[in-house]
Amino acid sequence: MRVSKAVFPVLALMAVAVAVAMAGCSSSESKDEQRLTAQRENYCTQLGAWQKARDAARTDASGDDGTDTVARDALLALEPLRDETVGQGRTLAEATAAAMNNADSDAEGRLVQYCDAAGFETLMR
Predict the structure, then answer these.
(1) Smaller CB count within 10 Å for the chain: N or C?
(2) What is the residue range of the signal peptide feature (predicted)?
(3) What is the pLDDT of residues 58-102, one digit of tens each?
(4) Do 118 and 124 contact (CB within 8 A), yes or no?
C-alpha cells in the first residue's frame, strides 16, 4: 500500500511535466508558423509592388521609375524565405532572381503560384 501512495504523486508530477513541455512546444511552433506566415505575406506584398512598378515603368518614359528600389525591398523580404522551393528544382531565391533579372515569365508564374498557395494571391498582379 505504501508503494502505491508514493507512486501516485510521482506519476501526477510526471504528467504535469509532460503537459507543460508539450504546451511549450506547441506555443513555440505556433509562433514559428505565425512568423513564417508574416514573412510570406511581406514577400508577396513586396513582390506585388515590384510587379506594379515594373509594369508602370514600361509605360512611363520619365526615366527614374523607382523600380530598383522596389526590387531591393522585395529581395530583402525574400531573405528569410530564400531556400523554400517553388517547383522544378528551383528555390524561391532562384525564381525571384530569374523573374527580376531575366524577365523569366515561367519563374514569375511560379512566384505567383507560391504566393497563391501561401494565401496571398490578392497581393499579386
Answers:
(1) N
(2) 1-23
(3) 887 666 668 899 999 999 999 999 999 998 899 999 999 999 999
(4) no
Residue type, 118: A
The total of other beta-carbon atoms located within 10 Å of residue 4's CB is: 7
Domain residue ranges of the chain, discontinuous segments joined by + = 31-123
User: Which grid coordinates are listed for 47?
Assistant: 513582390
Helix (H) or strand (E) holding 63: none
Ordered alpha helix ranges (H), 60-91: 67-78
Strand partners, 90: 87
3-state secondary structure of 119: coil
How many Å apart are CA 41 and CA 77, to the nearest integer?
A: 9
Residue 10: count of CB within 10 angstroms of its CB: 9
User: Could you give the CA distance from residue 96 to residue 19 in angstroms, rounded to a whole number?
Assistant: 43
